[in-house]
Amino acid sequence: MDAQVANWDDLRMFLAVARTGSLSGAARRLGVNHSTVFRRIAGFEAAIGVRLFERLPTGYALTPAGVDTLGTAERVEADIAALDRTVTGQDLRLSGIVRITATDFLAFWLLPDHLARFRTTYRGIEIELVVGNEALNLSRRETDIALRIGNTPPETLVGRRVGRLTFAIYAAPAYHAAKPHIVLDQHDWIGLDEAHAALARRFEEFLPGVRPAIRSNSVACTVRLAKAGLGLAVLPRAIAERTADLIRVAEVPETFSLDLWLLTHEDLRHTARIRAVLDFLATSLAEAIGTIGKGDG
Question: Domain limits at 142?
Fold first, then answer.
């Protein structure tokens, strides 16, 4: 590849299309429009004189030349990210942007109040909150801090265990009044799909053979479906106990519990603004989660 015709913006576009398999997916990931991605990919291919993608009805697939380019592009990406982390890690200012990624229910219910209090103390730090189930990559600087759920975080990341999310079974009062006898396998259930594989697997082990009447890739949506009376749902107690129009009707095994982690990259842990966010959220989220699950209320 001629270094004179390949710049980092071209490679970013190429990597996004290669990883998502579509122009629209790449556009969403990069925060640009569909036509921009199309134009940049076409220009990149014309500049190097090689076709990198096959345009298929199902999306964009790498050609053999595209596969070779992918390895080079990923090495360039890793070098740029390492340089970025090194420079950012030396930043001692309590100002600038900190990008946080979290799944929808954490972003909707747990984070907003804490971020509001954080902003009253650290006015110079801007927060970008990226909501979604996709695990953005900390090493590539797609995000600075990740709020993740799971009992085994990646070894390449550093951070702290904030607390443990416990779960229970909830229903709308009207649904429970209509079906007060809790024979679990005789109820309608609201489930989660493979976007929340750990919880979906725990549900299958808890009630083998029971198929949810409705599934979602969003815990926030599951809460709303339960409030609408569509059935029972296994929900995080830290969320459901604070949600109006839901009542706890049964317990689940302790195996449903999942650790909540605040994570960042090793090179960023000493950046002042990132450290400020980590320290503040670690304390406030631990307190919020700790208030749920003590006793039986």
Answer: 96-165+258-290
